[in-house]
């Protein structure tokens, strides 16, 4: 999730609405494709995100960087880093985490997932509308990827690979993505908390280069 900069003109708000709708439609396509061919779904996700970043007026990229933009760097698809897991309930804990601009983001930790790469807490974004949020850092954060972490699940922005018929979350690190503030500091993005730091590098999803 990223806080929206105040648009300077009225046209920016419909543009932002269109961005949200296109991202939601993309993830719906990715969920359908992933059921048959996860690697193909990943290629679709990467190509469409690249198109949006290059062409859309609400791209996280600053305008001067869009023309020369060649695509989002990602590791090749690795099926060994695609998991499903139930959310294990935990006592609810209200907390705030810092954002890239120093503002606090209120969250409610309500559960965790246990994956082969480690345990990660799962949060509810405790503002209007809310959403399930799963940010993380790993041993490669700050070198291989953004030091503030990446997002695995952010339903407020429709970044959601869905669930299995049994209700387990689909958590595929190949779809881990950088927050908008990685591309332009005008965006305010919540940073992954210290509870969600994985001990080993996760070389899947978006990378620095």
TrEMBL record:
Which Pfam families does its entry note? DUF1684 (PF07920)
InterPro entries documented for this protein? DUF1684 (IPR012467)
Q: Provide the protein name.
A: DUF1684 domain-containing protein
Per the UniProt entry, what species is this protein from, by scientific name?
Deinococcus koreensis
Upper taxonomic lineage = Bacteria, Thermotogati, Deinococcota, Deinococci, Deinococcales
